[in-house]
Specification:
- Helix content is 58%, strand content 7%.
- With 246 residues, it is mainly alpha-helical.
- It has a single domain, classed as Fumarate Reductase Cytochrome B subunit (Up-down Bundle).
- Strands 1-2-3 form a 3-stranded antiparallel beta sheet.
- Strand 1 (3-6) and strand 2 (9-15) form a beta hairpin.
- The protein is elongated and about 60 Å long.
- The model is unreliable at 1-6 and 233-246 (pLDDT under 50).
């Protein structure tokens, strides 16, 4: 195991994010960007004079096609993440996202004091997601579910080929019609935009403050964690044995 010292701390290299989690993360990021961009375009398309139906025009048709394609990828990618929450390593497990003890809420408060109140010396060292991040991701997964249901609910009346979107024909009636349904779908889109901005900021912030490879970890899966974290028994890594270095 490659160990090193940074700022007086002995670090251990830990394999945290498995490849399926990393693929899910970047595929999710890509589809969300496509869905936001095409979604805003569909909401306010180019005013092109034509007698054709909107989806049959080149620009509008491409926007709609890319939205539906990204929506299917987003949905099945999300379903895969639910599955991996049960079979993945401890850092991908659902216990990382759902509060189950007083210790979870205590850690959330510690992270809040560091990230929001900027109080130094209150850092809580965790290998995977800290409690605050995990809790927010839990609500983000709920937002994913809402976006999938409302999106396919709006698509159900337009689909004439595949049976899958027709499974969501009940959704508009539950929300009181297409207009309220579209409003919920639009509001959830803004949630994703705000979440993305905050998420990117905190990743860079923690990478700078902690120096543990927060950014690069989602590329290669490895993070650098203080040895004392392991000595105290707070985290026991579930990591593969790396090849010997020359």
């Amino acid at each position: 195991m490659a160990n090193g010292k940074t700022n007086g701390h002995k670090l251990r290299r830990v394999y945290v994010w498995e490849q399926p989690v990393r693929i899910y993360h970047w595929l999710n990021a890509l589809t969300i960007i496509v869905l936001i961009a095409t979604g805003f375009y569909i909401a306010s398309p180019l005013a092109i004079q034509s007698s054709k139906e909107a989806s049959q025009q080149v620009y509008n048709g491409l926007g709609t096609h890319h939205t539906f394609l990204a929506a299917y990828i987003f949905l099945f990618n999300f379903l895969f993440r639910i599955y991996w929450g049960f079979v993945g390593n401890k850092y991908a497990n659902w216990k990382q996202f759902i509060p189950t003890s007083g210790r979870f809420f205590k850690e959330m408060w510690q992270v809040f004091k560091m990230d929001i109140l900027m109080l130094r010396g209150k850092e809580h060292m965790s290998v995977g997601h800290n409690a605050m991040a995990g809790f927010i991701y839990f609500f983000t997964f709920i937002a994913f579910l809402v976006q999938c249901i409302t999106g396919f609910g709006l698509y159900a009346s337009m689909s004439t080929s595949w049976w899958f979107p027709k499974l969501f024909k009940w959704v508009p009636g539950m929300f009181g019609g297409d207009a309220p349904l579209r409003s919920v779908h639009h509001a959830t889109t803004w949630f994703f935009i705000i979440f993305t901005v905050i998420h990117v900021y905190l990743v860079f912030y923690h990478d700078y403050v902690e120096g543990r490879g927060e950014i690069s970890s989602m590329g290669g899966g490895w993070k650098f964690v203080e040895e004392e974290v392991f000595e105290k028994g707070l985290e026991v890594p579930n990591e593969p044995t790396p090849a010997k270095e020359a």
